[in-house]
């Protein structure tokens, strides 16, 4: 498993990582998934305090006991929730984020977190407060680096101008190429690493593409209508057959091709899914010709909102 530097940080993360949101609440099963990922060379685990309202962080913390030196842990905060109460609301205030971070540390059972991320964000947020807290946590040695999870160009640009973020987590795939419009190059130029989610397009960009399209593609996707989406799924399978690899390998290879990318966060609810992801990754190196064919097969989507 190859590793890439996460932006300008001192973190070197595996090219595919484990998205922990789907681990579930069975501690033994989650431990098996995490162990499988580590055994396959995956060293980057991504969680968030909102996942199962803190339970996911607890599960991850239990799963990595005795393995701390083998993993890079990333979590996120900013969604305000209270134990025993339904729902949550966005709260990027310094006071809440400080408390949320402490709670994440306790749930994970760690003394420090490798990457702490703002879990969303709007242009109206108290950005200076957020950055101030992140810098304080870094100076205190409680985090190694910080970043944001956002698809909003205006929010991303604000943090680039004002902060020392190391990473941005965003949705990026063959059927969501919005970051290519300007954000990927911008982040690459600033030495900020991209951690991509959704790179398998809800499973539609895998060998199970047709069945996943049946389940999840019936309302289209972004600016693809149902028929256009089915055409992509079918054509991707055809190109995979011609290339001698799986559609999943093509989808992974496409997302990793841009130099801004540091890692693809791929979820798994079973050890088998981790192995499938790794198998596809191992055959994901794309020739320039195949890369261009994939570009011609899909749309160069653009952001409609949150641009300025």
Describe it for me?
By secondary structure, this protein is α/β, with parallel strands linked by helices. About 40% of the residues lie in helices and about 20% in strands. The chain is built from 11 helices and 12 strands. The strands form 3 sheets. Strands 3-4-5-8-9-10-11-12 form an 8-stranded parallel barrel, surrounded by 5 helices. Strands 1-2 form a two-stranded antiparallel sheet. A hairpin with a 6-residue loop joins strand 1 (about 5) and strand 2. Helix 1 (about 25-40) packs across helix 2 and helix 2 crosses helix 3 (about 95-110). The longest helix has 18 residues, at about 225-245.
Quick take:
With 308 residues, this protein is of the alpha/beta class. It is built from eleven helices and twelve strands. Helix 5 (153-162) links the parallel strand 9 (143-149) and strand 10.
Shape: globular
Give, in order, the helices and strands.
EEEHEHEEEHEHEHEHEHHHEHH
Note the gap between the termini: 38 Å
Residue share in helix: 40-55%
Total strands: the figure is 12
Integer average pLDDT: 95
Backbone structural class: alpha/beta
Strand content: 15-25%
Put simply, the count of helices is 11
Major sheet attributes: 8 strands, parallel, barrel
The gyration radius over C-alpha positions equals 19 Å
Order of strands across the widest beta sheet?
3-4-5-8-9-10-11-12
Taking pLDDT < 50 over at least 5 consecutive residues as the criterion, the unreliable ranges are none
Q: Which quaternary structure do these chains form?
A: single chain
């Amino acid at each position: 498993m190859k590793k890439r530097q996460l932006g300008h940080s001192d973190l070197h993360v595996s090219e595919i990582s484990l998205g922990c949101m789907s681990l579930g609440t069975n501690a033994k099963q989650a431990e098996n998934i995490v162990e499988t990922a580590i055994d396959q060379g995956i060293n980057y685990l991504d969680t968030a305090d909102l996942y199962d309202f803190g339970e996911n962080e607890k599960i991850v913390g239990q799963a990595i006991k005795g393995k701390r030196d083998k993993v890079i842990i990333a979590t996120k905060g900013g969604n305000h929730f209270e134990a025993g109460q339904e729902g949550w609301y966005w709260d990027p205030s310094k006071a809440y984020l400080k408390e949320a971070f402490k709670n994440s540390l306790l749930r994970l059972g760690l003394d420090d977190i490798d990457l702490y991320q703002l879990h969303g964000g709007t242009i109206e947020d108290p950005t200076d407060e957020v950055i101030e807290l992140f810098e304080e946590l870094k100076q205190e040695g409680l985090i190694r680096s910080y970043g944001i999870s956002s698809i909003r160009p205006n929010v991303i640009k604000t943090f680039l101008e004002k902060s020392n973020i190391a990473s941005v987590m965003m949705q990026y795939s063959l059927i969501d190429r919005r970051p290519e419009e300007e954000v990927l190059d911008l982040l690459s130029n600033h030495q900020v690493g991209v951690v991509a989610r959704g790179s398998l397009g809800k499973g539609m960009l895998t060998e199970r593409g047709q069945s996943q399209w049946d389940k999840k593609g019936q309302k289209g996707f972004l600016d693809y209508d149902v028929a256009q989406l089915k055409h992509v799924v079918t054509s991707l399978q055809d190109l995979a057959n011609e290339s001698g690899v799986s559609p999943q390998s093509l989808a992974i290879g496409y997302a990793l091709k841009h130099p801004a990318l540091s890692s693809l966060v791929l979820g798994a609810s079973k050890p088998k899914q981790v192995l499938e992801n790794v198998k596809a990754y191992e055959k994901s190196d794309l020739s320039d010709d195949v890369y261009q064919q994939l570009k011609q097969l899909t749309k160069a989507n653009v952001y409609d909102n949150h641009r300025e």
